[in-house]
Amino acid sequence: MTADTKTAPAGDAAEKTFTFTNDQTGESWQFPVVEGTVGPPTIDIRQLYQQTGHFTLDPAFTATGSCKSRLTFIDGDEGILMHRGYSIEDLTDKSSFLEVSYLLLYGDLPSKKQLDEFIRSITYHTMVHEQIHYFFRGFRRDAHPMAIMCGVVGALSAFYHDSLDIWDPQQREISAHRLLAKMPTLAAMAYKYSIGQPFMFPRNDLDYAENFLYMCFGVPAEPFEVNPVHARAMDKIFILHADHEQNASTSTVRLAGSSQANPFACIASGIASLWGPAHGGANQAVLEMLAEIGHKDNIPEFIERAKDKDDPFRLMGFGHRVYKNYDPRAQVLRESAHEVLHDLGIDNDPTLELAMELEKIALEDPYFVDRKLFPNVDFYSGIILKALGFPDTMFTVLFAMARTIGWISQWKEMIEEPALKIGRPRQLYTGPAARPYVPIDERK
Ligand code: ACO
Predict the structure, then answer these.
(1) What is the pTM (predicted TM-score) of this model?
(2) 273 ligand 1 Cβ < 6 A
């Protein structure tokens, strides 16, 4: 099949079409070209099978748009990330995480009054049902906190029966607020459980990031002072992870939601998808890799291993499916990593030194340069989180906490589409063709 884009003939002047031609038969079909505000145009192929008898094959969705969305725009070649039209640099510099959350959920930056009301609602939903405390106790103490999060967030649907009707806008809103508010409480509980310390109840006098740090690092035996540099770094990490258009976990949430599953179940499916090392698990994998490399002198050996196609080793925290330029989030976090380490008086932390050296060498090596493999957001977030005192196993949990607002905003956008249709990809079947059934005593 060959293809050709052209503007449709007069009479349909505003509409562009894309023509597919069957090279064997000479038959051709036109499909509408749909343009977004910015970014490449898309070919609407919904009628492709009915008209041509063909499916498309794109297993990793490298060229397939799964939805229309007004939330987030990424230009991977230029290294641009925008939420609702605002650049990620402006948002991390000038907004708080809850302000960005409001923007993602409702479409515009809030007025002072709207923000105050939103913060109040989130603050007053941070406590979890007392019964959830017992739920935690069913887990082994050495359970990975992501395993706990998958279970506990899914279980929220068993606690909040009054916000499960996805067709009721008020119930959708309350479940969005509940998820955003309760994720830090649950994440901190997962951490406290793993180290055998008592759960800390949220404090309403603290902001979102401060409260999370307090619930993780405070103990009932003494007062806890939140370091403002750490709280700001935490808040920035939350902003930078808030949404990233149709990545694996967000697509998982949308697909789960398309079956009309409740929002708590959908977010639990996103957490499961995020867990893998090729996605949210990469920040944990970065630290594990740095520990494995051990010393600057060993970097060349690991760089060679990363290039060797027969070796499964990859430089974790490098490369991105969409960014073929510097990940703008990595740029912001690079500075933040220095600030936090400086504040903690560990400017010459051996892990950071190793990371900087690795970054320098990889950015000069033709293998990485030619393939446009730049450090991604996970490369630096792992270093900051380690400096703040989080164990590696909590890194992906923090990512899940921050991404919850993106997931729930994408879910809400999908449910509010006029025609919600269950997602159902097709396939290219490569198994055996129809064959006769062989009774067991005649099989070889
Ligand atoms: N180290 C070494 N080589 C790499 C790396 C890496 N980290 N990433 C990609 N490559 C190579 C591939 O081997 C391939 O080489 P080839 O063209 O010679 O075959 C080429 O670069 C293109 O890579 P793909 O695997 O086709 O890129 P893809 O878009 O499928 O993968 C991914 C993107 C999964 C992120 C990949 O770069 C990777 O595994 N990186 C490490 C894990 C990581 O940091 N993940 C976090 C992603 S960001 C996030 O989730 C927030």
Answers:
(1) 0.89
(2) no
